[in-house]
Amino acid sequence: MPRDKVTKQMQEENEKKMEQKLKETKDNETKILEQRAAVRQLSRVPGSCPVGKCNEIVFPSNLMMHMLHKHVNAVGTTSSEIYEHKPLIMSFDPSNFDFCVNDCLATLMYGGVKGQIATQPGHSYLSNPNSALINEHHRFDNYLPIMLMVCRTTWYAQLKDKHLETQLASINASKSGIYVFWLVAPKTTRKLYYTLTIYDRYYLNSRSVIRVVRDYTQSQNPSEFLPSEDNYLLLRDSEVKNFMSMSKSASTSYPKLGIPIELIIYEDPKNPPMRHSSQKELHAALKQVQDVYIMDSVPRMRGAKSCANSTKNARAKKPVLKSTSSSTESPISHSSIISD
After folding, report:
1. What is the number of domains present in the chain?
2. What CATH code is carried by the domain that includes residue 253?
3. Rounded Cα gap, residues 49 and 321, in angstroms
4. What is the DSSP string of 269-280?
5. Buried (b) or exposed (e) across 71-92, using 16+ Cβ within 10 A?
6. Which helix (H) or strand (E) holds 207?
7. What kind and span of H or E run contains 338?
8. Is residue 26 part of a domain?
9. Which structural domain range is residue 204 located in?
10. For 118-165, how does the pLDDT look when each residue is reduced to its tens digit (9 = 90+)?
11. Stretch (H or E) spanning 58
12. 85 in any annotated domain
């Protein structure tokens, strides 16, 4: 092939590469501008704290501060940093839950891809940065606060007819109990996905779902969102008993911990987690979780009633807007483990 022809061909290839790079640069700039605009359009309207016994109204940018100061050290609550595709293992003790009261099972600080600051939600335009953090909590300025919620209710909460729900719950609530699990966070510019897996004590059986994190400013009453949404995991009382039951001989040396739960968060639905923790990793992790022994069987419901009535009472007692600032700092308790 003549040298001139080869030179011309190489020049054309270089020009194509330059054009492609220029196009990619322009596309990235356009994408960044769109993401910045999306962040500016995020609602800053405050919402009620999703924890049932907390009456505070919290602004989205203050939810991290509120969570760190009010709920991190709550009894039975796991608190941990969590990163994309890094499994977080915790333990669920079903023995002490009031009926129709939202409890926080875990307070989480999501930091994007571990070790990559640019992927933190505040830097990647997934959410607004947090405000009012003090001292060592400043490291969470660009993290996203996430809360794993659980509520004990009945199957009838899935009915759209709330009058019928109330009637059925008053008749047969003790035999229709369920646990509802879901994740909440401030509204984000893009959907945030998670895989939630619940195991039995010996990791022989499991239930797993892929769901989207809910906006905490929406209603967090299962009686209101169960009929129209699917971003939650349900466990019947009978399933909880099965997960808690002894699947090995009574002479086993394993401790009777609660039900193991594995949580994996990721932003790209096309790239879900391909690997769960191994049985060995899960056993090692649970040794570091909660050193609490629980009963073999789930107790009967206390104060069974319809959650539809709880909603009316909650609306009637609208909390007064309070400042969520605090002069004290709550240390983070690492009662969970993130698998590498």
Report:
1. 1
2. 2.60.210.10
3. 11
4. TTS----PPPHH
5. bbebebbbbbbbbbbbbbbbbb
6. strand 206-212
7. strand 337-338
8. no
9. 54-338
10. 999 999 999 999 999 999 999 999 999 999 999 999 999 999 998 898
11. strand 57-58
12. yes
